[in-house]
Specification:
single chain, 789 residues, mainly beta, Ferric Hydroxamate Uptake Protein, Chain A, domain 1, 2 domains, 41 strands, 5% helix, disordered N terminus
Length: 789
Amino acid sequence: MRRGKSHKKTRNAKLKGITPESQTTTPAPSFVRASIRRPGPAMISLASVMLATSAMAQDVGGALPTIDVQDTAGGGYQTTDSQLTRIPTPLRDTPQTVNVVPQQVIQEQRITSMEDALRTVPGITFNAGEGGQQGDSPNIRGFAARGDIFRDGVRDPGWYTRDLFSSDRVEVYKGPSAFAFGRGSTGGAINIVSKLPTAVPYLEGTITGTSAGGYRAEVDASGKKDNVWGRIAALYQDVPTPDRDNVYTKRWGVAPSLRIDLNPDTRVSLNYIYQGEESIPDYGRPYLPGPSYSKTDGSQISAGYYGNGRPTLPIPVPRNNWYGVVAGPLADIVKTEAHTLTGKFEHDFSNDLKFSNTTRYVSVDRFTRTTAPRSLFQADNATAVTPGYSPQLMTIGRQHFQVETDNSLLVNQTDLAGKFYTGSWLHTVSVGLEFAQETRGQQRGNGMTASNLCDPTKPLCRTSAYYPVDTNFGGVFNGWNAPNATKSTTAAAYAFDQIKINEYFELLGSVRFDNFDTKYTDFALPIATRVQGRTDNMTSWRVGGVFHPTKNSSIYAAYGVSFNPSAEFGTLTDTATSTANPLLAPEKNRTIEVGAKADFLNNRLSVTGAIFRIEKTNLRVPDDPAAQTVLVLDGLARVDGVELGVAGSLTDRWSVFAGYSYLDSEIVRTTNFAELGRELPSTPRNNFTLWSTYAFDPQWTIGGGAIYQSDAFVNTTNTSYVPSFWRFDAMLAYKVTPNSTLQLNVYNIGDELYYAQYYGGHAVPASGRYASLSYRIRFEPPPAVKYDK
């Protein structure tokens, strides 16, 4: 079992992913650099300059001089390089906070989903299902990021929970990132790195059982023969959610990938990821009635459940309480089918210039029938809950609805990246184009009301909040409502240049232009108004500088802008008070971050720190707080923060992976006085994460971790919140044989009641204390033995 010891290998700073058979570090002759400095035509393409520079270097028998960087995986908990061609510099020289959850942490904690991986990263929270929106819904530094999820640098749409069986690691790019990812990226973006073929042949299997029952099995195999590389990963799981009645998750998947080296400089690859799921959705519990405030002057209108204006907590009921429909023809269920097919062509023009073209098709089909707990009443099922009313007497409604959502994405990305000199300055450059078409179709079932199978105000759709009764009654299904359909197209171009002036200073600039066009059709509306459309032209950019006090450290500053268009989440409506109104221009964001990164202990331990400010400078707010007839772009929301991180090995036996974030958020300017001066929802001030392992000897390794999150409000008026919590985990691993490991994990040792997901409507309790036992075995062929003649 790996123990987090750094296995960094220095290599020449060639373009990431290029592995030439031979290379030199002979400096380019002076005439090469001089030729680049000579005045030339006014219009010279960047590609031609890069090609000419590299060709001249090869003509004189050497490659361009380069700086030293490290392999993508620094070993153990460290990661030194980004997977993205658009960020071609080592992470230590990248002027923003980049958190990477590596494979070793995933294995040691037995992390199975992207959401659980992101819990090891500070400054990230998760929304509960909202209005039918389900699947992964993270927030980064206080801003929604459910549209900012990528796989291998390509946007990954779809409402589903992303399993990690096909993933090597998870990267989080915080700070100014829109230049690399496009629309959104307010607080940052998430990139999942897929498992792709490796040169080392192996077969690995893992089986896991939990104390709650159920199991999970994974297989991962890779091999290479001649010029063909292959890998396949597969999964099946059937696991109940500990301490949540009736909730379980079944998942299955397969991920084959193939790479063919056509010649030493050219390769093609094809990979496919399929993930299926059948599960029971969990919408948790609602909040006690909160206080309310006037939108016109901010004065208190009602005092709320506590009678003194205090914000309220989720209703205090047993952790296992679940309010869904257990069985019957309309039982709660989620079924998901996700397909991702990717083809990639790569060619190395030289050691310092790489071209790639990626085409991907994504299809995610999701059917869900779920229950949201709504309409908290007194025992008579009709009277609103009054201050101090006993939770044991409360009743709750089952808002039961059925939604089918189908997403697709067809995208092509072209990237050209490399290095070249102008004078003595070394440019690390990346340019690219992106063309994408995304569609979404959705329809909702008709029942007791136009959109609900069960009306939460009807006695048949209600139960005790404290002592819920399982039911087979899910209301009635009267067919599907008229569907809606979205078609969005994106055409984008970007350029990045980081200039190494000397061994101490680097400057960078990057820019991206997006043309984002959306047509939204609601077939329930009259023909004259059913189609809404909007086209936005958005130019995102970032500038910054990096200073290297020593070879193994950097101090940086960066400033960038990004945009949130009205159709960012796939809908448009002519409702004047909706944030998806097509008359509204994009919201604008500006981010400034100053930080430092350094490697210590012979480069075995990476330490990072940053301070930052994010401002949404034209927040959508009502034009008139009393009438609220339309929204205007005249508000300001701000998050000031600090983030610290450490990853690597303190000794050969002791490894650590930890982070801390402090977020101070405020709605600084708005016409709605009920929100003025309030904190942003899902933005806890303090968040601390820790995971550490210690290897006593070659057989035994012990590990443990902690997560702390302070109180977090769930709405913009700050009338309800989820409380702070500490969670502690532990791990014990024993190497049974040189190639197999038995591992015990215990989660939430203190059996803490906390909320894994939340938003203004409800909060979902996390699992209580439980354990898992895993056995992992790996087979590798012995190295070939060479005999002297």
